[in-house]
Specification:
4 helices, about 170 residues
Length: about 170
């Protein structure tokens, strides 16, 4: 009986997007089951303030409060519950910039399906995307980062070489 309930349950997961090019509508990859509609809410995230707080902790030499993982995996560092509903991203969450419902194709066979939802987001910045569906009102979250720069990094023996360019032109 619990397996049948699990198969029939409404599910939604936001997949990682990587950095996307500013100026083009951001894509939001979604895996879902047993729903034909996804409700999305997007807030701006103050990434510059998050990075500055990280630098401040490093300069304060607070070993317990600093992990390189905080910058390497922003989604995990910002969106994971730290206990009692304490989400670090809330400190940096700004204004709501978009909210909409997206139709997805539910074949009715209780299988997982995947869709890339086109969003209205085109401006440079970091955004927190929250998705929910009927029967699964607790939102799932992920970050979407839109940028017009590209950074190429090469690790050398004792240092790193970085090259920054315009992502559209390569200049």
């Amino acid at each position: 009986q619990s397996q049948i309930h699990r198969i029939r349950a409404y599910e939604i997961v936001l997949q990682q997007t990587g950095v996307q090019l500013a100026g083009d509508p951001a894509r939001i990859p979604v895996t879902y089951r047993n729903t034909g509609s996804v409700h999305l809410v997007v807030h701006k995230l103050d990434l510059a303030r998050y990075v500055q707080d990280f630098i401040d902790r490093v300069e304060a030499d607070d070993e317990n409060a600093v992990s390189g993982y905080d910058l390497e995996n922003l989604s995990y560092a910002l969106l994971q519950d730290r206990g009692n509903g304490s989400y670090p991203y809330l400190k940096y969450r700004g204004e709501k910039v978009a909210e909409w419902d997206a139709k997805v194709n539910d074949a009715g066979d209780h299988r997982y399906a995947h869709a890339d939802i086109t969003s209205p987001l085109t401006e440079r910045g970091c955004y927190v995307v929250e998705a929910s569906c009927a029967g699964h009102e607790q939102p799932v979250r992920n970050l979407v980062l839109l940028s017009d720069i590209a950074v190429v990094r090469k690790k050398l023996k004792d240092q790193q070489l970085c090259f920054t360019v315009d992502a559209r032109t390569g200049q």
